[in-house]
UniProtKB/TrEMBL annotation, chain A:
This is Cytochrome c biogenesis ATP-binding export protein CcmA. The keyword RNA-binding does not apply. Keywords: ATP-binding, Cytochrome c-type biogenesis, Membrane, Nucleotide-binding, Translocase, Transport. One of its GO terms (biological process) is cytochrome complex assembly. Residues 5-214 form the ABC transporter domain. It comes from Halomonas halmophila.
TrEMBL record, chain B:
Belongs to the CcmB/CycW/HelB family. GO terms for cellular component: plasma membrane. It holds the Pfam family CcmB. GO terms for biological process: cytochrome c biosynthetic process; cytochrome complex assembly. The gene is ccmB. It comes from Halomonas halmophila. The chain crosses the membrane at residues 66-84, 105-134, 140-166, 173-198, 204-229. GO terms for molecular function: heme transmembrane transporter activity. Keywords: Cell inner membrane, Cell membrane, Cytochrome c-type biogenesis, Membrane, Transmembrane, Transmembrane helix, Transport. This is Heme exporter protein B.
Length: 214, 235, 247
């Protein structure tokens, strides 16, 4: 089962303004695509299009050669999306939050797996605290623990490095490297310099248009 | 190539639904205000009527069915705003839209929890307030039944309005503008059932019509709500 | 051939050109019909044997009430076309219709209230038709308020379309439930349907007025849609060529 998401001549207009146009890109197993651009250049919008959340675009999006609109459910069962907001409930503990995320993804998890996922992100000892009592960086780590717990091949991460300390950044970079090393792929937006052991494709969104470099 | 066992295909179609309801109920227990406040509001509004109209039992007992129903309806309305707003703000809603499950089903699970946490408690509490308004005896079972049935329809219809107004700052008033006109039929048949029980006329037609409204809302509202959620989230 | 024509019609530019030729005719026809119907109905139609001259308010009340409901249905149809086929023009038309629909509903309510003074001796009666007309007014206000509150146009348009569709499903339900409620509470009052049929010299002017109101609706919608097209397409080349402003 090969993994392949293609965009052909993708264009997006929001209220009379073109965010980007004539965008061609291809994501395959083992790829990291880094989307760059100034604030308001349409990074999050692009991620929402690529993750099939928004159908408001012109051009073609293909998942394994078929139009994304038609194979949306199959596509979603391979996608793990972590957005700007962490999708955690402050009143629930880290373990409870993760249990919900895993179940929503259709991959029920054992408590041991959840504890292990939190430990990978350096959150041993914080499993049962309400997430609302954790710091912003710790909350981000709880959200990122989904990367370990929920097994999906295609990751889309919107600003995943926000609020992480140096240690957390290294953990995430290691996770990205090993995921891509195992044939998974990643699309992410960040302003952070990215130190991973694999080549990174870069996509720059901006006033002067779109350019893709490897 | 990847190790295939790491990427097992998801299984168990209704597991996300159960997980979702379990989480919502857990959240409800952790923050009791969400379901206690509408009850307090219900009691408070009922207290205002005797003060504002007259303490005479003869006056109140004729008005009681309508007052109880209107107050319960307003209490439901008050609780609607929280139905999707928290989830939209913390990003959970985005995850619901990305779940491989059909969104209308997830919406239905959410509405079911909303009904359990507002409509059902309101129906259970109504007889106590009925006594305070001198509601004629014999109509109490009908009061509870009509409220339980009708409030489910209110939750379903209200979900559409709640989904449409997520992106609106201070959307509470707008939400009531959108939803209250749609509540009129439920109010008519609901309070009509209680009045029929008092007057000794057949209640079955009222309940049947209330049930028909509920069935129609059950069939259509989750889809409209799902569409509205997608629109609001991609604004 | 048919499809090509529809496609041209659905594009804002094509519609703009076509409506320029149509709308003067609509305005002219509406003015003739409403003017003629007004003179006929108010000046020449016989007085009602029960209500005297006060019945003549029917010549405004009934067309306004009919239009109030028709416009909501038209808005819902436009909303459906917009949601399913993504025709932006349909939403522009729905935007153009909404205030007129609310205005017609208000006119129907107001004329009904004025009519109530000689017939019921009161400005307001919780009559089944007035009540459902009042709820219709609230439905219109809801659509207008939602459009006003959602800033960005694309999402506001979709949200308003969904709301209008939900509303149009509810209109018959509201109508029948209000009638049911009214008959339960007012079993003894006369019902309009059982009255003797109107003589032709009374209903013919009414028919003219109804047709005139529909022409007015068409004319207003065409003109307002044209304004909406210019507003939304202001950055397009063809509009800038039209107005002589260019980048």
């Amino acid at each position: 089962m090969s993994l392949q998401l293609q965009a052909r001549n993708l264009a997006c207009e929001r209220d009379g303004r073109w965010l980007f146009g004539a965008l061609d890109l291809e994501i395959q197993g083992g790829d990291i695509l880094r989307v760059e651009g100034a604030n308001g250049s349409g990074k999050t919008t692009l991620l929402k299009l690529l993750s099939a959340q928004s159908l408001d675009y012109q051009g073609t999006l293909l998942w394994r050669g078929e139009p994304l609109r038609r194979v949306r459910r199959d596509f979603l069962s391979h996608l793990l999306y972590i957005g700007h907001a962490s999708a955690l409930k402050p009143a629930l503990s880290a373990l409870e939050n993760l249990a919900w995320h895993a179940a929503l993804a259709g991959q029920p998890s054992s408590e041991a797996e959840r504890v292990a996922a939190l430990a990978t992100l350096g959150l041993s000892g914080f499993e049962d605290l309400p997430v609302g009592q954790l710091s912003a960086g710790q909350q981000r780590r709880v959200a990122l623990a989904r990367l370990v717990l929920v097994r999906r091949r295609l990751w889309m991460l919107d600003e995943p490095f926000t609020a992480l300390d140096r240690d957390g950044i290294q953990t995430l970079e290691a996770l990205l490297s090993s995921h891509v090393g195992q044939g998974g792929s990643v699309v992410l937006t960040t302003h952070q310099p990215l130190r991973v052991e694999v080549p990174v494709n870069r996509l720059h969104l901006g006033e002067e248009g779109v350019d893709v470099t490897t | 190539m990847s190790r295939p066992e790491r990427y097992a295909e998801p299984s168990g179609a209704n597991r996300p639904l159960i997980a979702m309801m379990r989480r919502d109920l857990l959240l409800m227990m952790r923050s009791p205000g969400a379901w206690l406040n509408p009850l307090a509001f219900f009691a408070l509004v009922i207290t205002l009527f005797p003060v504002g109209i007259s303490p005479a039992a003869s006056v109140l007992s004729t008005l009681a069915p309508g007052l109880l129903w209107v107050a319960a309806l307003l209490a439901t309305l008050l609780s609607l705003e929280g139905m999707f707003r928290d989830d939209a703000e913390d990003g959970s809603l985005e995850q619901l839209l990305l779940a491989p499950q059909p969104l209308p089903l997830l919406v239905l699970a959410r509405v079911a929890v909303h009904w359990v946490s507002t409509g059902l408690p309101l129906a259970l509490m109504a007889p106590v307030l009925g006594i305070m308004l001198a509601l004629p005896s014999g109509s109490y079972p009908m009061l509870m039944a009509s409220l339980a049935l009708g409030s489910a329809a209110l939750s379903l219809i209200g979900a559409i309005g709640a989904a449409l107004t997520i992106g609106v700052a201070r959307g509470g008033i707008l939400l009531s503008l959108l939803v209250l006109p749609l509540y009129v039929p439920v109010l008519i048949f609901g309070s009509g059932a209680v009045q029929a029980a008092i007057g000794g006329t057949p209640v079955a037609p009222h309940l049947a019509l209330l049930g028909a409204l509920l069935a129609l809302a059950l069939a259509l509202a989750p889809w409209a709500t799902a569409a509205a959620l997608r629109i609001s989230l991609n604004a | 051939m048919m499809w090509a024509f529809l496609h041209k019609l659905a594009s804002p530019q094509g519609f703009y050109a076509l409506s320029a030729r149509l709308s003067p005719w609509c305005w002219g026809l509406a003015a003739c019909l409403i003017g003629g119907g007004m003179i006929w109905g108010l000046g020449f139609a016989p007085a009602d044997y029960q209500q005297g001259n006060s019945f003549r308010i029917i010549y405004v009340h009934v067309p306004a009430a009919l239009l109030a409901q028709s416009i909501y249905v038209a808005m819902a149809l436009a909303g459906l076309v917009f949601l399913v086929w993504r025709v932006k023009l349909a939403d522009m038309a729905a935007t153009a219709m909404a205030p007129l629909g609310a205005g017609m509903t208000f006119l129907a309510l107001f004329s009904g209230a004025v009519w109530g003074v000689p017939t019921w001796g009161t400005w307001w009666q919780w009559d089944a038709r007035l009540t459902s007309m009042l709820i219709l007014l609230f439905l219109y206000i809801g659509v207008l308020a939602l459009r006003g509150a959602l800033g960005t146009r694309q999402s506001a348009a979709r949200a308003a379309s969904v709301l209008t569709l939900v509303g149009v499903i509810n209109i018959p339900i509201i109508k029948y439930s209000v009638e049911w409620w009214y008959t339960l509470h007012q079993p003894a009052t006369f019902s309009v349907t059982s009255r003797p049929a109107m003589p032709a010299e009374m209903w013919l002017p009414l028919l003219v007025m109804v047709l005139g109101f529909y022409c007015l609706f068409l004319a207003v919608t065409l003109t307002r849609t044209r304004h909406e097209i210019l507003r939304r397409e202001a950055s397009r080349r063809w509009v800038q060529a039209l107005t002589g402003e260019g980048p």
